[in-house]
Amino acid sequence: MVRRLAGGRLHYAWIVAGVTFLALLGAAGFRATPGVLIVPLEKEFGWSTATISFAVSINLVLFGLVGPFAAALMERFGVRAVMIGALLLIASGSALTTVMHAPWQLYLLWGVLVGLGAGSMASVLGATVANRWFVKRRGAVLGVMTAAGATGQLIFLPSLAALAVDFGWRYAAVMVTCGALLVLPVVALLMRSRPADVGLRAYGATVEDAVVAVTGSPIANAFRGLGLGVRHRDFWFLAASFFICGASTNGLIGTHLIPASIDHGMPEVAAASLLAVIGVFDIAGTMVSGWLTDRLDSRFLLFWYYGLRGLALLFLPFAYGFGYVGLLLFIVFYGLDWVATVPPTVALTADIFGKERMAIVYGWIFASHQLGAAFAAGGAGLIRTYAGHYEPAFMISGALCLIAAGLSLSINRRRRMGATAAETAAATSTAPARA
What integer pLDDT is reported at residue 215 of this predicted model? Predict the structure, then answer.
């Protein structure tokens, strides 16, 4: 079947992109589910917001830290194998939460298992597929794949919230399990790692890519990629700005907007729908961001994205006072650049570190994104527990975004690294592939 599809008029790169979009869509919905579960778990078990938020922090940390190792595993064993393993982890973790009765079990199941699984299919997967399968339309394709996160929120969150309210949070966990299992056969049948696997070139390529066989330990290769990155100042600018990106998106808004809105008297399903509407605007914003990344300087795009996001977060504490009109203004300006930062960040990473080293180095940059998300998820939970409201968390996050806007202009795109043989060997241990 794959051979027939590869020989058809539609380039197989678009099929791979579609499968990747489907997997990323599911991963985003799975990772965002704890935001729906915070209030139901508080009511059933009496756990505090800080206790539940700690599980979310574990999830977010692993969601990011697994990225470079997942990239190395994809190089060593193939994209399809890593995606299948990730889906099985998500299905197992979410299914077992239905019988948990202690916080440590929440930490292990939703924090560790779901965090590792979802993280293996996070931003690094989209970046790897776009980089391998596309020469033309690469930025636009990456924008669409990144928009899968917003689409996942749009599809999953309102329905999960309705299940949690009408039938109980366990039904929401079962829905996540079923979603992961439904995606699994599609990945197993259609996913391929490289164009050469189906006898093709990348979409828009005029010459064959040099295929290399990756050897050595994936863990060692991942740490070599980290060693390569930390020696260059642009890595630190990208990592710091992406740390703030995570702290101001899925760590804060993705986790705490629903309980914050409930604090202001909104019904739970309506609060979840707010986050889904943000996803609607993010789909448009991220796709446009991918298109712009193919045409404009990524540094200036990041400056505007972080600046507008910071202003939106500074406005959020006041938005509730204006009712739905104020929230709508926040949703529009915040939603348009929820993850619009991803295409220009990936483009800068590839420009600075080179295509062959981009996936693992970007994996570490994405890890900083999730460390920021974990910082915000846990910190906002503590602020809510001890201050009684979320307003300080929103203000701090908004100020950090303005700092990230300044950091973005400090990245020197023209200082591309020289790709010496020694550095290439340091990134991954490779040997020429046999025909």
Answer: 53
d(CA 219, CA 404): 30
- Closest residue by Cα to residue 108 from 121, 123, 122, 97: 97
SS (H, E, C) the chain: CHHHHHCCCCCHHHHHHHHHHHHHHHHHHHHHCHHHHHHHHHHHHCCCHHHHHHHHHHHHHHHHHHHHHHHHHHHHHCHHHHHHHHHHHHHHHHHHHHHCCCHHHHHHHHHHHHHHHHHHCCHHHHHHHHHHHECCCHHHHHHHHHHHHHHHHHHHHHHHHHHHHHCCHHHHHHHHHHHHHHHHHHHHHHCCCCHHHHCCCCECCCCCCCCEEEECCHHHHHHHHHHHHHCCHHHHHHHHHHHHHHHHCCCCHHHHHHHHHHHCCCCHHHHHHHHHHHHHHHHHHHHHHHHHHCCCCHHHHHHHHHHHHHHHHHHHHHHHHHHHHHHHHHHHHHHCCCCCCHHHHHHHHHHHHCHHHHHHHHHHHHHHHHHHHHHHHHHHHHHHHHHCCCHHHHHHHHHHHHHHHHHHHCCCCCCCCCCCHHHHHHHCEEEECCC
Q: Cβ contacts of residue 265 below 8 Å, gap of 6+?
A: none
Q: Which domains does the chain have, with CATH numbers?
A: 2-189+220-412 (1.20.1250.20)
* Cβ proximity of 217 and 370 under 8 Å: no
Q: β-strand 212-215 against 429-432: which pairing, if any?
A: antiparallel
What integer pLDDT is reported at residue 418 of this predicted model?
A: 44
Confidence at 395, pLDDT banded by 50, 70, 90: very high
pLDDT, tens digit (0-9, with 9 covering 90-100), for 155-192:
677 777 778 878 888 888 888 888 888 888 999 888 88
Beta pairing partners, 431: 213
For CA atoms 354, 359, 360, 364, the dihedral sign is positive
Residue 124 tokens, joined: 């690094």
Tell whether the model's pLDDT for residue 96 goes beyond 50: yes
pTM surpassing 0.85?
no
Alpha-carbon distance 401 to 398, whole Å? 5
Select the more confidently predicted residue: 136 or 303.
303
* Higher-confidence position of 155 and 368: 368
**How far is the first Cα of the chain from the last one, in angstroms, to the nearest whole number?**
23
pLDDT reported for residue 419: 41
What is the pLDDT confidence band of residue 310, given thresholds at 50, 70 and 90?
A: very high
